[in-house]
Input
Amino acid sequence: MRFIGMVKSTEHAGPPPKALMDAMAQFCERSIKEGILIETVGLFPSAAGARIRLAGGTLTVTDGPFVEAKELVGGYAVLEVKSRTEALDQTLRFMELHREHWPGWEGETEIRQIFESSNH
Output
């Protein structure tokens, strides 16, 4: 089963501390070796992005930053696991790194199973 974990926080949290980046690098390296982590990326701030919306038959492009959003996706990870429970466990470990190495940071990671043609 594949899951995607989307890390969300306020965009004004600033860059992550070096200690967190180092801990995440070790965590990710271990998870890749174990065959759990397929891909992980961080995203640039929304100021470098755009949204394309379809509403009422009209396409609208809005350039960032997206100030109306309380939380934005700052990165994601794709996991290959045997169960939802294993995806939750892996995500809890990842979030624990944030609690330990970035005191005061607030955010969440939403996990969702990836739809694959073999899922139906």
